[in-house]
């Protein structure tokens, strides 16, 4: 059978990793399914991503094996998908895989009818049978036999699964044009109690191994801790234990910063080493928000600030695309594996033995660091050694030793083979990074991080955004109607060129969140204006007949697989739920704009929370975090008056507040970045209409800056001192408990 190298022209690094396989791969699309229909054979759908260790393993064992490839080519149409470029495909077939096999993950292996309906699925299949897991060849043979001998049953089961998918989608339907009841704040306290039942108080995190960073849940717990209640201390302590455990573990790169995707052990000591932008952006924000709580409980604020700074530096140094002269976006990931002498080794760049430490540091320091960082004679990951991790808080003397030896260890590690990087820029994940970097810059007093966030924002606007092509309303106020002229966000770019499908709801929501956060930090109106365009575009694209969906049917096969019903997933996955993130964006936008319509839309999405929070709060963290912001206000803060030191001090006090859902607007006037004193956060010359929250907000009678605080459409008298502002803000936050 002639192999046509259809992946050779792909831009996805993951697809290019498979272009030389003997498997006759098709990219996902109508051509592949038409070929399956013509040949009357099933589709074998393989989904993964470039940084995935077990994807590499299955590729080497099965997809590079000629005999396996010959059988696959003869009896199936093989389709390869990069889950990061096609999350719409990944999402529905992941749900099918979990329903069929009871497990999920990547590589994902799904068998489909020629019209896209799933009928059998699993994840990694080995080349030879293992206890409880058949070989890949056995699976292929069994599926072929069922297709030939029991076709009616196969197709009936596939239709039944699709109908089940449709019912699940219907259960989570949100109608944004229908009123919803206010959220009961007791639901949030009950979610904290339920989370406490699954917490691992010794190892940190929730549940047993494997453990993933519970980033969205941490955001909820930190927000809940900021509002006094009978469960706020419990929320604070759970968040602190998890943040401390992860920061001191092998999950966190102790030399360069950055968190690995997950740990195979409950104590976070043996990670899978892929490093993802979406994980690190979320965790950077979590550590920054912990710093804003301003306490030295389980995790001291100073230690959290150090972790956050290292994560931010790692993101920019390791994932920055384009270089200092032409900064672009942030790449999606670093690989789990490092290729050494042509062989994939998981985590090879990060592993040490006592001998390798002594070779770099000498016998005395090498032995001391081995003891300090849990590097023993037997490698915990492989024969190449163990990752560096103390597993506890370092003493003063230990910290001094570690700080002294780090430069030599970094230099030695930089000389090793390094993991490959997937350079694709994903819009939504870069939106998460914009919010995290902007807030980190403000809270940690590192203006260069704000500048980095602006550079990423500029890249998204320049490369990923397709402006409105026709007449369009200039604001997002007509949210429920479809406007053909609305701009379009493209999900992925490669080498500075946007390609592929348009963004999903999560892309629009994460980017709008990032631009609103950047506006709050800088006061630049154009960031607010672009967030408004994104919200308008999302409403035009994903709200049809008043109903919200995650995507707009990029594929007929995906639409068939979900029972021909538009889908909306309220649950967090590796990144927050797009619906939950959009609710948060609508809530913030309503506070800035005064739009009751958008506040009502956010409330409609939050109506998903009661049935979820009571049974599965671990997968509803961002919805809970948004709910916490909703019941807390949001509190609206408008900083008026001329730029200068006093205005900046008031602004910084607001940005340092942990109050959930606080929205901050600041008048830069015509001075922009030319503030009266040095050290101001970056700004720009104002040329756009005033943000509604700032309208009619004037300086004090003596011309000095002041802050207007409002909550629930009720405003206090303006405040002119930082001390008064902090006290009043704390009182308003406490009143929300």
- How far apart, in Å, are the first and last alpha carbons? 68 Å
- Report strand %: 5-15%
The best one-word shape is globular
The proportion of residues forming helix, as a percent range, comes to 40-55%
Strand order of the largest sheet: 1-3-2-4-5
Quaternary structure: single chain
**Low-pLDDT segments, ≥5 res:** 471-483, 670-679, 682-686
- Tell me the Rg in angstroms: 26 Å
- Count of alpha/pi helices: 26
The overall pLDDT, averaged over residues, is: 90
Could you characterize what this model shows?
The protein is globular. The protein is of the alpha+beta class. Strand 17 and strand 18 form a beta hairpin. A five-stranded mixed beta sheet has the order 1-3-2-4-5, sandwiched between helices.
What does this entry show, briefly?
With 737 residues, the chain is an alpha+beta fold.
Secondary structure layout plus pairing:
Layout: H1 13-16, E1 25-27, H2 30-39, E2 43-48, H3 53-63, H4 66-75, E3 77-82, H5 87-101, E4 108-112, E5 118-122, H6 136-149, H7 151-171, H8 186-198, H9 215-225, H10 232-247, E6 262-263, E7 271-272, E8 275-276, H11 277-292, H12 301-319, E9 333-334, E10 337-340, E11 343-346, E12 351-352, H13 354-361, H14 363-372, E13 386-387, H15 396-414, E14 421-422, E15 425-426, H16 427-443, H17 447-464, E16 465-466, E17 488-494, E18 497-502, H18 505-522, H19 525-542, E19 543-544, E20 547-548, H20 556-561, H21 578-593, H22 596-606, H23 609-613, H24 621-632, E21 635-640, H25 645-655, E22 663-666, E23 706-711, E24 714-715, H26 722-735
Parallel strand pairs: 1-3, 2-3, 21-22
Antiparallel strand pairs: 2-4, 4-5, 6-7, 8-9, 9-14, 10-11, 12-13, 15-17, 16-17, 17-18, 19-20, 21-23, 23-24
Helix pairs in contact: 4-6, 8-10, 9-10, 9-11, 9-24, 11-12, 11-16, 13-14, 16-17, 16-18, 17-18, 18-19, 18-21, 21-22, 21-24
